[in-house]
Amino acid sequence: MKGLTIDMLSVNQSETFRKTISESDVYLFAGITGDTNPAHIDEIYANSTKFGKRIVHGLLVSSFISTVLGTKLPGPGTIYISQSLNFKAPVYIGDTIEAKVTVKEIIKEKNRVILLTEIYNQNNALVVTGEAMVLAPK
């Protein structure tokens, strides 16, 4: 399976991935990464924060950008070069998020693609935004 080559891409082309974040997703991410911040895993502690309940790890949420890049746009064979992230709002356990990746610029001579990366919650609120640069599949 191959992804889209540089010649198959166009500006404003986009793809998405949607997922509901479960409690087990948060615990598995904490176990894999070692990030056991109580804001994510301790309900009593999280209730005392400004968020009022546990929040999902920002990097767990933003990792779904990689899902879009590696499986849909450009797809299999894509190599991540860089990613900027701006966290706009918290994501809670049980939220359904949608990662959207949109081609912003194509640099054919270097086989690079710059993409707008956005994540929205089920209320269509922007929770994460940023920009990625990738090498398109050959």
What does the model show?
By secondary structure, the chain is an alpha+beta fold. The protein has one domain: Hotdog Thioesterase (Thiol Ester Dehydrase, Chain A, Roll), CATH 3.10.129.10. The protein has a five-stranded antiparallel beta sheet, with helices on one face. Strand 3 and strand 4 form a beta hairpin. The two termini are 12 Å apart.
What attributes does this structure have?
alpha+beta; 34% strand; single chain; 4 helices; Thiol Ester Dehydrase, Chain A
Name the CATH superfamily assignment: Hotdog Thioesterase
Low-confidence segments, ≥5 residues, pLDDT <50?
Answer: none
Proportion of residues in β-strands: 25-35%
The level of helicity is 10-25%
Sequence of strands across the biggest β-sheet: 1-3-4-5-2
Tally the structural domains: 1
CATH class membership: Alpha Beta
Structural class: alpha+beta
